[in-house]
Amino acid sequence: MASILSVATAVPPERVAQAHAKALAGEHFRGKISNLGKYLTVFDHSLVDERAFCLRPEALLAVSGLGAANRLYVEWAERLGTEAARSCLARAGADPAAVDGIVFVSSTGIATPSLDVGLIESLGLRPDVRRVPVFGLGCGGGAAGLAIAGRLADAGPAFTHRGSGASTSRASASVLLVAVELNSLTFQRGDYSKSNLVASSLFADGAAAALVTGGDGPVEIVESATYLVPGSRGLMGWDFLDSGFRVVFSRRIPKVIQDMIPETLGRLLDPRGLDPRSLASLVLHPGGRKILEAYETALGVSRECLDASYRVLARYGNMSSATVLFVLDEEMRVPERAPGDLGLLAAFGPGFSAEASLLRWA
Predict the structure, then answer these.
(1) Catalytic residue, candidates 54, 88, 139, 305
(2) What CATH number labels 219-361?
């Protein structure tokens, strides 16, 4: 059974208070959206206190075109991904040369070669490390990446190279998951839609890393599940324009998530006779206030049960795929966890799809 050895996070240096972000949005969208004051209240009700961006908001507004934005994405994604991964390896006391595979998750920029190449070089990983770049899963990417890393770590020698290297003497594999998102760089200056306004009140930049092994560790990945809602591709994602990535963000998302939860989580909990309210830990992606409230309604739990998700939302906003790993980092620091305690990690993203894992504190 795969286990999570450590988790670490990283954010860029520009911290922006929500009140300042609201003021800037008011200036940018003035005259473009009727009754703007009404819609700007989304900043007040988002439960976001502050966020981190790779550039000052004023500088972000000056970034023009896909090429300029993507060059900044490559620079910052590699920088933040390296910082999070290096901290993750240090927390586990792991030698970079012992890493057999790297799963790199991101949906806010593009790069060929994929950015895991830069991480391999900057971290000092072996040149024969297996590479699994993952694009397009959006907010669900961190949860999906953790499940992929767990399956690969479980596969052991079937996943790793059989040639020379540090992995050949071990029955299990060690896989590094890195999720990086630079949502701020996708902001479209010429998009004056309400969806773009809502997105500007919520999304932020950040990176997270998790080290997963096929052996023993603090938190075991018992089982993972995925669920795709047919005919729901238009709910969330990107429209790819000459100017860059334009956000697609439906108001139906919280209700769709609420309806999906019983089907998705039932695949993990029902065969074991588990009730969500009996779990010691809920590691849920804080996509926004309405999504957190949808979790509470569907699972029949109180807000206190999602305290870590609310804290991450307040401090960092929605960092897409990396966010659920920020919540996992918070949960792994809780000292009261007892051996055998169960937890549920879940996130929802474009597709529209759900990714979930049942966790057990070892």
Answers:
(1) 139
(2) 3.40.47.10
